[in-house]
Task: structure prediction
Amino acid sequence: MLELKGVNSFYGKAHVLNDLNFSVDRGRVVALLGRNGAGKTTTMKSIMQLVRPRTGTVTYQGQDITGWSSHRVARNGLGYVPEERRIFTQLTVAENLEVGRQPPREGCTTWTEDMVFDLFPNLAERRQNYGKALSGGEQQMLTIARTLMGNPAFILLDEPSEGIAPVIVEQMARAILQLKQDGLTVLLSEQNLHFAQAVADGVVIIEHGTQQFVGSLADLQAHPDIRDQHLSI
Amino acid sequence: MGLFIAQILTGLANAGALFMVASGLSLIFGVTRVVNFAHGSFYMLGAYVGYSLMQALPGVAGFWGAILLAGLIVGVIGVIVEICVLRPVYRAPELFQLVATFGVILVIQDLTLMIWGPQDLLGPRAPGLKGIIRIMGEPVPQYDIALIAITPFVAIGLWYLITRTRVGTLVRAATQDREMVGALGVNQSWLFTGVFFLGCALAGLGGALQLPKGGADLLMDFSILGAVFVVVVIGGMGSLPGAYLAAVIISILNVFGVTYAPQSTLVLMFVVMVVVLMIRPFGLLGKEEVAGEHGQTGEPERPIKPAGPRIRLLVTTLLVILALLPLYSGNFAVVLVTDIMIFCLFAASLHFMLGQGGLVSFGHAAFFGGGAYAAALLVTYASTPMELALVLAPVSAGLAAIVIGWVCLRSTGVYFAMLTLAFGQLLWSLAFQWGDVTGGDDGLVNIWPSAWASDNTVYYYLAFTLCVGGILLLRQAAHAPFGYALRAARDSTRQAEATGINTKRVQWVAFTFAGTMAGLAGGLFVFSKGSIFPNELETARSFDALIVVFLGGVKTLSGGWVGGAFFEGAKDYLTRFEYWRLTLGLLIIFVVILGPEGIVGSLRKAGERIGLLKTPEDAT
Ligand SMILES: Nc1ncnc2c1ncn2[C@@H]1O[C@H](COP(=O)(O)OP(=O)(O)OP(=O)(O)O)[C@@H](O)[C@H]1O
Ligand SMILES: [Mg+2]
Result:
């Protein structure tokens, strides 16, 4: 469904992504693992075209989307949940969801406000609160909910478990599994291996912007040496 | 009592147009981060277009229809400008956008002149509202009452649009993080264009609505700009209620000012603004500025390095040519080049503060004109000899810069820029309105150099020495440890503070230094011309300097004086034509879009490409 071929990305002169090649099949949850600064966020941004890959291609549903503007990528059903959350703090929860709302898309769930509140009940009671009044966990739920309102077929989740309480992390894991059941494809970046193990089928490990391992979760578990070498646990 | 109420009502009526223009500016800035200098021009267009429509459409319906239509037409013109001029430069640094909108001002000025001619137009009176009503015996025009009644509807309509509709929600979201809005599938280009339409339509509406009160003239664009900036800043960037409140305050203040202190109306407005910003750095109802958080992209800065041998040779040659100029050319060239050199020093001083310090000042003319006025006043009232006056001019400008810098540097970004603009306007109003001392519009005349320097050639050498000296001094400062500290403060306040740099102090010193050098240029200017008029303090003069710095290239060391030489030269040539503003404006717009590196930056790139100069990669 999504495929990266020879992707190289830069910030100015800094070469951050080095020849990434991997793909994510429909209906799968793939975890992108790597230490701080490995290039996970940059990979996500390169897919969304928020950072334009200098060489290589990103293909989504058979279409080469490299060089598109981000809004066009989003409109094609790729939902992006950024690491820093970037909710609109001066808008209410309901308004944040409204910004994310897009017309229904064929073959995808058409999300409504009520449906995202079912998925994240904590948000329902916060409907009229401003974004800045939410806790870290609630903000994380809101970013995901906001992206779902765009009725994506595929979502990019950048470190959803970062900096939130263990109870909420669990809730988040359940939500992701439910989304997977609904047929959504997910690429999530993580440093938290436990979280990744709870939700992912496939794994991509990157270090210094170079891809070190691509395989299934079972493959990784069969090679503890790889895990120890590239991930800090 | 009656008079008091009548004046409040006049103030409220005047607040209408001001509010519309200001809220448009504020909206555009909020979403696109562009400070649209051309906003006053759209206001002016609204008045002219409205005038023509009112001529064509008869009756009550025609009058009000003309106003609405004028708003729509100006909105469409705004869209054209947005698509043609601003879209190509959204990703460029702020200054590029400023300069581009400045180019638009020049173009609109000349186009208006071409279409409607130079004479002021008297606005037609509103059919059915030509009379007055008496409130406690005082006459109040009926049209004023209508304006007072209309404005809240516009304000509420706008408020509804912004807070209660999807488009408004998107606009508010984009104000905070436009990249994220794009990543959620919203086409930002159309959002920007839509906001531009709305903002410009509001300005046009304001211009057409005030026709029966003020008519239309070619100075409207700049005259409202100052007030609009003040309103937006006092109210708080991006706050609609704030803009309304501030528009009312400023308008009422002006009405009372005209009655009780006619000498100080302009000064009053800026004093209020400074006081408000001292107490509330983000305006009455504004929120803290988070600009640039997820914004600006651009090429990384190149490290500053001493000039290579080829460049040194080039500069030396240029200096030799300049030094020998009086030997091979006539009087005219000597005088012209004197002016150019003086302007180069002025531009270089702004360039130092802007390029090295990242301090975008809209009011640098305050120090140029300030130094010039200091010298002129010393000569006029204390018969000071030229030598001493040339020392005291930069000293006074420097002292002024210490005070002004202290106030302005309490704010950052747009607010800093607005404050500098306000101080520029303040000094201008002083010079303009305090006629007993400064001669007002008539200026100060008969300020001639000492006998030994009165010959054009001798004065040329004096200016040559001081200007080249000043420019070298500025360059030296950029290479000194002070320059490093200043750039560190520009690039990241927090990191600079962490390494023990007192960023505010460093910027303050830079501001003062730049002000001093501009004062020196001003001093030289006044003795070269023999006179000084308030227009040397005008905002337009500050903009000239900004354009020059931009044309030369912000990210280069020599951009200031190169741009200065080019600009003064071009202006001398262009002003011989009737529509020189149009030409200059288009030229500026083209440079912004096609050669955003500026003259020096583009030449350097070209030089690197053909192998004359080393690229930074080779150097490392
Ligand atoms: N805007 C930027 N400009 C320059 N360099 C950047 C920028 N953003 C990230 N980098 C650099 O790119 C590299 C990869 O960063 P990235 O954010 O993609 O890593 P990450 O794997 O997401 O890290 P983390 O786990 O901390 O989120 C890092 O070395 C980082 O310093
Ligand atoms: Mg990251």
User: Anything to note?
Assistant: The first helix of chain B runs from residue 2 to 32. DSSP finds 26 helices and four strands in chain B.
